[in-house]
Amino acid sequence: MAVPSEKAPLFTPATLRQIAEQFGTPVYVYDADTLRAQLEKLKRFDHVRFAQKACSNVHVLRVLREAGALVDCVSLGELERAVRAGFEPGQDPAQIVYTADVLTKDALDRLVETKVPMNAGSIDMLAQLGTRSPGHAVWLRMNPGFGSGHSKKTNTGGESSKHGIWHEQLPDALRVVDHFGLDLVGFHMHIGSGADMTHLERVCDAMVNMVVDSGRDVRAISGGGGLSIPYRSHESNIDPQAYFERWHAARQRLEVYLEHPVSLELEPGRYLAGPAGVLVTEVRATKSMGGNHFTLVDAGFNDLMRASMYGAYHEITLLPQDGAPRATRPTVVAGPLCESGDVFTQTSSSELDPRPLPEAEVGDLLVFHDAGAYGASMSSNYNSRPLVPEVLIDGGKVQLIRRRQTIADLLQLELDIDQRG
Question: Helices 170-179 and 197-214: crossing angle, nearest 10°?
Answer without folding.
Answer: 50
